[in-house]
Amino acid sequence: MELSIDLKGRTVLVAGRAAVADRAVRRYRAAGATVRALGSPCEDPAALLQGVHLVAAVDDGRPGWAALERACRAHGVLFAREEPARHRGTVTLVGGGPGAVGLLTLDAVEALREADTVLYDRLGPHETLPRLAPVAELIDVGKRPGHHPVGQRGIEELMVVHALAGKHVVRLKGGDPFVFGRGGEEIAACAAAGVPCRVVSGVTSAVSVPAAAGIPVTHRGVSRMFTVVSGHAPLTEEEHRHLAGLGGTVVVLMGVGTLPQLTAGLHWAGMRADMPVAVVERGYSASQRTTVGSLSTIVADAAAAGCESPAVLVVGEVVRTGLELQGEVARLAELDSALGAS
Ligand code: SAH
């Protein structure tokens, strides 16, 4: 059974040895309760219940707590049993989705709620973290393009150090941890340090950011595949040839800086100059923006609009489909004039 109680201003007695009850104490404090901690069973538990609304008993394996439970029953005080905090630290790699809180999974929310330490960067839903992870220490390890405040090795070290100190560490990542997220390296770092690690998949920006702009990455009769590529470094000639040859949607992450090489490469490899292209910036934020053009105009269009990272690029007929589905008449006319210019 799951209950949600407003504990603001209420008094909660947390019973259990400090080492196992500490986390519950912090959780109830974070919920706004006045917390009294009772580290060991006492002779006359009823005397302790004065003014107490809830007793949270954390099972520390010691006998003697039964009297407290009986006293609660006798005095009509709510009694809740809690699992003790696990001593062994863990790491959970959590995919935070593209930034919208609503696109966090239930598992992600639960992992955050239980976290002692959260390592986050700006791509996940970081603004609501204090609410989602009320008892956790929040550490910003954010990376901006070309600027790495805490390097990848530093992040792995922080993760491992906190876990070895017995903390439940959440490494919150934008999108999905395994899509250009360096999740594999972080798992390897945990394995090397003997720290148990699990992964909570997230909603990747590769699919959700186009969706936020109304663009389906596949559409019956238009595209039956999509390829997700990293634009961090320019693709090779061979890669451009394969992509152009597939005839499906191409989705590029981290691709704003290499857009000129991408469009030139795909064109060189035989893709039509009038293939629609969209640049979707800052998906799910108040400043989300979509710029559309064709393979031959998008570099100038994106420059004129001042397009910046983070953005997802979509190359393919599905861009037009998206505009049609949304009845974006003005945008379609814009696209057509871009195509005319191709
Ligand atoms: N693991 C992430 C991707 C990390 S790479 C995922 O699965 O989504 C970082 C790139 O993701 C950015 O450069 C950008 O291309 C894309 N991205 C992530 N969130 C985005 C957002 N809200 N809006 C636009 N692009 C986003």
Measured by DSSP, the beta-strand proportion falls in: 15-25%
The second-level CATH architecture of the largest domain is: 2-Layer Sandwich
Overall tally of structural domains? 3
End-to-end distance, in Å?
Answer: 61 Å
Give the helix proportion (percent range): 25-40%
Number of helices: 12
Strand order of the largest sheet: 7-6-8-5-9
Which fold name corresponds to the CATH topology of the largest domain?
Answer: Methyltransferase, Cobalt-precorrin-4 Transmethylase, Domain 2
Please, what is the CATH homologous superfamily of the largest domain? Answer: Tetrapyrrole methylase, C-terminal domain
| Estimated radius of gyration | 26 Å
Extended strand count: 14
Q: By helix and strand content, what is the structural category?
A: alpha/beta
- Taken in chain order, the helices and strands follow as EHEEHEEHEHEHEHEHEHEHEEHEHH
CATH class of the largest domain: Alpha Beta
Note down, in words, how this protein is organized.
With 342 residues, the chain is of the alpha/beta class. It has 3 domains: 11-82, Rossmann fold, CATH 3.40.50.11410; 90-202, Tetrapyrrole methylase, N-terminal domain (Cobalt-precorrin-4 Transmethylase, domain 1), CATH 3.40.1010; 206-341, 2-Layer Sandwich (Methyltransferase, Cobalt-precorrin-4 Transmethylase, Domain 2), CATH 3.30.950.10. The chain is built from 12 helices and 14 strands. It has helices at residues 18-30, 66-75, 106-114, 129-132, 152-164, 183-193, 205-212, 237-246, 259-268, 298-305, 318-325, 329-340, and strands at residues 11-15, 34-38, 54-58, 78-82, 90-95, 117-120, 137-140, 168-173, 197-200, 226-230, 249-253, 276-281, 289-294, 311-315. Strands 7-6-8-5-9 form a 5-stranded parallel beta sheet, sandwiched between helices. A 5-stranded mixed beta sheet has the order 10-11-14-12-13, with helices on both faces. A 4-stranded parallel beta sheet has the order 2-1-3-4, with helices on both faces. α5 crosses α6 (183-193) and α8 packs across α9. The longest helix has 13 residues, at 18-30. The radius of gyration is 26 Å and the shape is elongated. The mean pLDDT is 91. The protein binds S-adenosyl-L-homocysteine. The site of S-adenosyl-L-homocysteine has 23 residues, from α7 and β14.
